Automatic annotation (TrEMBL):
<dbReference type="GO" id="GO:0005615">
    <property type="term" value="C:extracellular space"/>
</dbReference>
<dbReference type="Pfam" id="PF00021">
    <property type="entry name" value="UPAR_LY6"/>
</dbReference>
<dbReference type="InterPro" id="IPR016054">
    <property type="entry name" value="LY6_UPA_recep-like"/>
</dbReference>
<feature type="domain" description="UPAR/Ly6">
    <location>
        <begin position="45"/>
        <end position="126"/>
    </location>
</feature>
<dbReference type="InterPro" id="IPR059168">
    <property type="entry name" value="PATE2-like_ECD_3FTx"/>
</dbReference>
<dbReference type="InterPro" id="IPR029691">
    <property type="entry name" value="PATE2"/>
</dbReference>
<protein>
    <submittedName>
        <fullName>Prostate and testis expressed 2</fullName>
    </submittedName>
</protein>
Amino acid sequence: MDRCWGKRQFSKLALGAVANVCEIITRKVFLLFTGELHDRVEATEIMCYKCKKYHLGLCYDVMTSCSLKPKQSCAVENFYVLTVTGQSLYHYSKLSCMTNCEDINFLGFSKRAELICCNHSNYCNLPEGV
């Protein structure tokens, strides 16, 4: 407990609460080498990346994670701009946990959106090839 709170004096009741808080704090695992932040979780949970604006390997928001709840999947929403000739130019992606997720393509006059869902492995929702 000294590594969390130093050598402060606590009552016996507060000491138990402080020990619990210290244990929770030290359970967090930060993967700073890749710029990613993950919480340590049980092996049965599937974790997904969460980022509002992801582009070419970088999150332009805060990269966090979410754990799947029942009926959820990891989701990648890829957004494209359509050129005058009809070509799709990749713009950015949104990474999340999504309820009742289904793979689908949306096509408008000037935009295209692609939704890709997965739940087969941890952090499976990183866009490939974009």
